[in-house]
Amino acid sequence: MANKILLLAACMLILPAAALAQNGAAAIPQGGDAAPYSGPPINSVSPSQSQDPFSGSVPEKAAVSGTLQLTFPDAVRRGLKQNMGALLSSEAEGSARGERWAQLSNLLPHVSAAASENVKQIDLATLGFNFPGIPQVIGPIGYLDARGYFSQNIFNWEQIQRTRAATQNVRVAGYSYQNARDLVVMAVGANYFQTIAAAARLETAEAQVHTARALSGQATDRLKAGVAASIDDLRARVELQTRQQQVIAARNSLAKQKLVLARIIGLPLGQEFEIGEKAQFEQVAALRIEDVLQRAYANRSDFRAAEAQVRVAELVRRAATAEHYPTFHINADYGVSGVNIGNSSNTYDVTGELRIPIFAGGRTHGDVLQAEASLQQSRSQLENLRGQIDQDVRSALLDLQSASDQVAVARSNVDLASQTLDQSQDRFKAGVTDNIEVVQAQESVATASESYIESLYAYNLAKISVARSIGLVETTVKEFFKGF
Predict the structure, then answer these.
(1) Measuring CA to CA, which residue among 62, 67, 63, 37 is closest to residue 52?
(2) d(CA 192, CA 275)
(3) How many CB atoms lie within 10 A of CB 215?
(4) pLDDT by residue (tens digit) across 326-342?
(5) HSE on the CB side for 186, CA within 13 Å?
(6) For the whole model, what pTM was predicted?
(7) Quick one: CA dihedral 406, 411, 412, 418, positive or negative?
(8) Taking the C-alpha atoms of 26, 27, 31 and 36 in order, what is their torsion angle to the nearest 10 degrees?
(9) Cα(379)–Cα(13) distance, integer angstroms
(10) Domains of the chain, start order
């Protein structure tokens, strides 16, 4: 009869706990989640930012033989896989899941088993007993005890609320991980297009060397023919060497920028690679600020993480308030005891405990005050982020429009400067003027080319910034860049 009672009690306790565990598990999204990333948005990354995890990575082990052709989609995929910021955020997501299970264990049944063989020998004199005719030492006495133990919280509203908060914090971790991936795409994109710009600067500098060399040759020929002054030849040679210095600097700048990019995306150490694309202008369709803001509030992972964090703070406050509530739990054990396994009896013990808090020295009041302050902070941070998103969207759209206009002007300026250089060279060949005019025209071409490269980089960076301000960057960049 006793066995049946204990079995019935165990079933009544385990079934509700199993249902709670199932419901709690169903609340976990497939992606999981961790604390929101609090670092600043990344517009560009330099090697000096050693404290920024998004500027580092875990390099791949196997290098590819030869030179790797790296495209923008390839760079993004490698960055999402190897970048340190994404890896750390992923680990934080796992930590949040572990914390949830640790909190959930307070509501689930705890079952254990133990077996012991005990031997005792008692000296009655040490206990103050002295009976005539009875030996002073009793024993040795041996007995066996083997049993299972069961404990279960039947009602603990505080633990229920804290478990719900831990489950919600898993959602925060998932949004944080997605936000980290967005920052990785932004960091990779900024440095990838910076590398393209550096390659374009080197190409332009080499073209200017070619032009300066031709100009120097013309000046030398005219000097030998006696139709030009030696100052023209000297001026042309100085211009040639100046352009050669620029090529050296541009080549070094490109090599260093490639090291930064390789570090961010986790290429194998020493891997040679080339950028598989050239700088180009891809116009983005007109964006209405109202539509962009609506998408941003719906998609931004950091905003959704902040909303979930408010929910966590609300549940923690409820848990603190629930410290005033009574709790009820049950402990039970069942097993056998006796001199030996063949001479033993079934024994059990069942205890139900109702605990009613009366006075805890103000601890509960203090917990409530702390939870309320944390909740107000989370709400303030959410509203601050709402305003920040509005600013991010408007600033990104302004930068996009400004960069687009600058690209158009810079492109026209390059054409005009090139025409000026051609006409100056023709005038110099015809002996109409000296080569000062040609050198000045070449300087104008160099300045216009640099302005075009810079404006084109700014436009591509502005597109990435708009994608970041909208959210879901991995998806949004596909709208802005062809072939992604």
Answers:
(1) 37
(2) 8
(3) 26
(4) 999 999 999 999 887 77
(5) 25
(6) 0.78
(7) positive
(8) -160
(9) 38
(10) 31-112+157-329+361-480 (1.20.1600.10)
